[in-house]
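Hey all, quick one. A colleague (J.T.) asked me to put the VTB job into the tracker so the inputs and the structure tokens live in one place instead of scattered across chat threads. No bug as far as I know, just bookkeeping. Sequence used:
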Amino acid sequence: MSEAVEKAELDRALALDIVRVTEATAVAAAQWLGRGDEASADEAAAAAMHREIARLPFEGVVVVGEGEEGDCPFFYMGEKIGAGSPTGASVDLAVDPIEGSTLCAKALPNAMSVLVVAERGSLLRVPPIYMEKVAVGPGLPEGVISAAATPTDNLKALANAKGVRVEDLTVCVLDRPRHGNLIEEIRSAGAALRLIGDGDIAGVIHVTDPVQTGIDMYLGIGGAAEGVLAAAALRCLGGQMEGRLVALNKEHRAWAKLSGITDLKRTYALEDMVSGDLSFAATGITDGTMMAGVHHSPTTITTESVIMRSSTRTRRWIKTEHADPTKFD
Ligand code: VTB
């Protein structure tokens, strides 16, 4: 078998392995559902994800993780995890054991566990700071939105490209005090707003199917890690996104420096954030727009996941019944 064929085969087989990881993570997180204890939920989910990734046949390098070495028990940047492979396959890992810890702690919709496995060197390494994001779905002229443009101009450009009025558009934004001016500007421009409490990966993904979700554009400042993970989803689903890293305080600036980021004004196009082949897996922790959460019956636990591959643009939904919640085989 040629090296390229071998790699493609490995990627295909891995897709299911990756889902097993997010399934186990979601089930671990769900034990803390609605308990108001984000830290314990995070820890249980990260431990489960770490344990399951350690079994996979590659050498994974954490590129988007939870912090620097010594600062977090799992998934420090640069950490190597995986069982290794005879072919020496090495991959980039971007992890978010619980996207929306608060949602999980409060048992609110749209919490999920997310894992991206990508070609080595193809994911932007981001520190745990923020990112200003703008995203729209597929089928629009290239460059219709820009992180450098004002929200009003982005909305006008999108309305123009879609042949509708700005008033017909809905923008998804994280409901945060820092977005006061942004929210005011979007309202003055005439667009509607969907304000979400957490979960901006799902927020960005929503723009890829405006008919179903009712969301035409994602705007605002959320986690930088979530930015790269959302970009990975858009690489599989189509759509456009740009991001700019944002350091809100001294600590963030120190993080940025430590990660070798010298230009905080730089705009990252989607291709700068994710440049190679990747698989994106997510399993619902709580019920959400994309999939159901973890559900318990007296004898089984049911999970719902999505796995997407950028090379083929396939999107699979996998519903799994786990007879033994301690085994994810
Ligand atoms: C967002 C949201 C995440 O962090 O990225 C947000 O999508 C940004 O941070 O689910 P703040 O909460 O500080 O605004 C999360 O809420 C995850 O922590």
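Adding what we noticed when we looked at it: The chain is about 35% helix and 25% strand. Residues 3-30 form the longest helix (28 residues).
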